[in-house]
Each structure stands twice: as C-alpha cells, then as structure tokens.
Amino acid sequence: MSNFEKAADGAKMDFSQDMSYTDYLGLDPILNAQHPLSDAHDEMLFIIQHQTSELWMRLALHELEAARRAMQSGELPTAFKMLTRVARIFEQLNSAWDVLRTMTPSEYTAFRPSLGNSSGFQSHQYRLIEFLLGNRNQALMKLHKHRAAAFARLEAELAQPSLYQVAISLLCTRFGHAPLAGDPGQSDWTADTAVQDLWQRVYEDPRAHWDLYELAEKLVDLEDYFRRWRFNHVTTVERIIGFKRGTGGTAGVAYLRKMLEVELFPELWNVRGAL
Q: Each residue's pLDDT tens digit in the chain (275 positions)?
C-alpha cells in the first residue's frame, strides 16, 4: 500500500448516492461560467478576476447587512466581528489586483473589443456596497434600470439608513443629542461639525465610551482597506490602458482618481486633526 493509500485509508470514495464537495459548493455552474469571446489567452484571467471579485463583494454585502442589523439591535460586539471581516475581504480584493497587473497593455488590447460597453462601473454589487456604507449617488441608479432585480435591491437599500447613519444614531443617543444622521437615501452627505464634535467626545474619553470608540475604529479600518482597493484599481487601470476612456464610457483613470477623494466617514477622519 502506498503512502497516499495509507493516508486516505478510511476515506469515503463513492459519492454516487451522497453529496460531495462539488455538489455542496455548486462547483459545476461556477467552473463553467467562464466564456471568453476571443482567442486571447489573457481573457480568462480578466473574467475570473472579476467573477471572483463579485463573489467577495457578495460576501461583503452579507456581512455589512448583518452588521447593520446588529448595530440597530445594540449588539455591537457582533457587529465588530463582521466589520473586521469586511475589512479583510477588501484586503483580499486588493491582492487580486496584483494578479491582474501581470497582464500587459498588449495582452489586454488583444481582447478588449470583446468587452463592448461592459465595465466594472456597472457592478450593482459594488454600488450596493457604496450605498450601504453611505455614499448614495442616486444619479447612478439609471445604470441598473435594465435589470429589475438589481434595481429593486438598490431601491430597497436607499429606503434604509446607511451603516454610517446607524452609527451616528447610536452616537447621538449616547449623548442625548438630537438626530444628526439625515434621511435615508440622501446623496449629498458632507462632513457635519456637530457629528465630529460627538466623535471627539468619544475619542477624548475612550474608557467611558469604549463600545463607540471601538465602533469608530472598526469603521476607519474598513474605509482604510476600501481606499486601498480604490487606489490599487486606479494604478492597475493606468498601468494597463493608460488614460484611455473606460469601456463603459467613463473617463477611465481620471474618473477613478476622482473617486479617491470620496470619504465614506468624513467626521471620523477629520476628528483626528482636532484631538
């Protein structure tokens, strides 16, 4: 008997009547969902990079939605675990850019026409993540009008307070302050000095407000990784296509650089300079 056979001794080998690893994970549709439209070798890399990113974003949404529910129920330790996981999901998404950057401009050019007008800019899951975190640009909703289920989910998200609005509500309640989080769906949220002042009270006495102090740091950690993901996206696009327009019609690198200026939790960053 070989060493392998000894190691596998006792392992189940017949799955004709039982659920296997492939069955449980639904691997057949996943592994057969790659359909390159050209003969270019690197198109497979491009497809899998984006498909796996969408899977990670699906998990991020699962965790963020649960974290918001936990915060609304006052279960902050539960929310902390989920927010930490989302930050690590974005670390994983960051690493994926390193693989995509092995593709050269010449290699991408070989299959770029196959993309037509499709673009990551059209990802409804990415838009949901931004909406859930608080960056709610409703003008972008029209991108998803042609997909009823995605559009409905985005509409449903806009009817709820964002994760950050929930955090601000907790902050206001702690200090007996009138609500400052604004209305669900608003897309013009800018830094509010009153909100910053309340966060400053938390940071000036963390022992007295440890749960809110930890919540603030979890949110900053999450945005830190999210910003890195955006930055690596810009760098990757510039490295591969330079300053050409994106396939979806955006200004490409210029548009992505503008997105780097967007702050999800502005008061949490501004308060650092006030301490």
A: 566 556 567 788 888 889 999 999 999 999 999 999 999 999 999 999 999 999 999 999 999 999 999 999 999 999 999 999 999 999 999 999 999 999 999 999 999 999 998 888 889 999 999 999 999 988 889 989 999 999 999 999 999 999 999 999 999 999 998 887 677 666 655 668 999 999 999 999 999 999 999 999 999 999 999 999 988 888 888 888 776 666 666 656 776 777 767 889 999 999 999 99
Looking at the domain covering 39-121+162-274, what would its CATH class be? mainly alpha
> Distance (Å, rounded) from C-alpha 72 to C-alpha 46?
39
Q: How far, CA to CA in Å, does 153 sit from each of 58, 148, 149, 186, 268?
A: 13, 9, 6, 16, 28
Residue in 125, 205, 188 with CA at minimum distance from that of residue 157: 125
**Domain extent listing, the chain:** 39-121+162-274
CA distance 248 to 115: 9
Residue by residue, DSSP assigns 184-211 as TT-S-----HHHHHHHHHHHH-TTTTHH
DSSP string, 147-166: -HHHHHHHHHHHTS--HHHH
Q: Which tokens sit at 238?
A: 């510039």
How many angstroms separate the Cα of 229 from the Cα of each of 2, 24, 91, 129, 226?
47, 31, 8, 13, 5
Nearest to 94 by CA among 224, 258, 217, 238: 224
